[in-house]
Sequence to fold (89 residues):
Amino acid sequence: MSRTFSLGEVVITANADQVLDRDSVLRAIARHKFCDWGECCNEDKETNDTALQNVDRVFSAYRDSNDTKFWIITEADRSATTVLLPADY
Fold:
């Protein structure tokens, strides 16, 4: 059985929306929801796994089809998930 969690309202920053390939973003959101943390280091992956149990913030990192790095962050209370570029943070 796959692990999953609530994303809440999914939003994207204006900057990320202009730069990123939309299909890549949609695939990454699905990966994030099913606990595939993308390009996160092992320590961040472990932190995310613990965050699912402790209801903390969840963070993942991906690249779109143009090799542009972006992040997805789900708030601790699971009310919202934001897609953003590192420069937007």
